[in-house]
């Protein structure tokens, strides 16, 4: 893995099309882990060691083993082709950092809402803000070994629209994280096609549709 990262670390001079996806969710749901697992470069992160002072601010329910936390954002990168690059931003989950989210959402194609099914309520704010901004998103349930829920139970708990994709994942696994991104890209493409067919616009279509196809398994093993 380290050699793969170093072999592809340099960004090609021809790259001039930057595409942006944001990973959001509650505190300790695995956003930093997902960005780290799928990025081709050593990701930039702003993790700091948690202190006792933070115990009175951050709710550690369900994540008592967590020892560090993101205080700004995570950043990773995937080269799609010679000209197009996908940038991944992981948003901090604690309420005291939510003021950063509006800036992180600016210019994004779409978002992944990462969910810990043991703490579904922690994801409500992320979904609310994305809907407020009109940002397309999918929901990915990160596997923490919690109680099993049916898809319908999760959809009802999160009040998800039927057209919002819901998938399972393991944020530690690169293939699983790639599958999540592919699902988001397919969702964005479907929305773009629906808008075009409804006469709402090709201008609003995803300019990145073609390069984003590089995320699919046959293009990016």
UniProtKB/TrEMBL annotation:
The organism of origin for this protein: Streptomyces halstedii
Pfam families xref list: ATP_bind_1
Protein name, as recorded: ATP/GTP-binding protein
GO molecular function, one term: hydrolase activity
Top-level taxonomic group: Bacteria
Keyword annotations of the record: GTP-binding, Hydrolase, Nucleotide-binding
Family: Belongs to the GPN-loop GTPase family.
Gene3D superfamilies: P-loop containing nucleotide triphosphate hydrolases
